[in-house]
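Example record for the data management plan.
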Amino acid sequence: MGMNWRLASRLSVVVCAVLVVALIMLVQHHPAPVSTLNMNSTGSSGSTASGLQGTDLGATPAPNFRLTDQYGKQVSLADLKGKPVVLTFLYTHCPDICPLTAEKLHTALQGLGQQAQQVGIIAVSTDPKGDTEAAALNFSQAHNMQNSWHYLIGSQSQLSPVWSDYHIYAQAGQKTMTVSHSTGLFIIDKQGNERVFLGDDFTPAQVTANLKTLLKQ
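Corresponding structural encoding:
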């Protein structure tokens, strides 16, 4: 009985050692997957095969929508087909990211020169209550964008489907005028397809370069 116990003990040690070696070999031959998406937390780094800067969106058709701009005019995304479009989501009482985004878009358009007339810029409101037509016009004028973009406003029921289609989070504060919302830019080509996404750390030069590339396509 003593010999059988010792033999069984030794065999169990050998079996465990073999299993450990086999497990190590398995891990070496099947390493953990590594993401091929080259982007930071806000999604502005990297470039696509077509030379566009940002996170590749696969050229999927951009969902259409129709809302009212800062002049009370009905505007749809489809109206801008034939032009590259920059689409962003803002609110007029935003204290930080939204004004900076507007300023950077203004600089990007200046970088395009005469070609600025050949592109479209759309800002969709994330604040149905605070973003009135007057507020949208004042915000646009404050950032020299009144004739360079369509700042689109609407009711909660009109805006919510647009946020949903573009996976935008928007939630108004209970006691303040602030709105928590997703930030960044969607770059859409002349055919109405989503091409790349840029996070809120985008530079005007990136936007200008992307639009120049799409104007040539």
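Summary line stored alongside the record: The chain has two domains: 1-31, 55-215.
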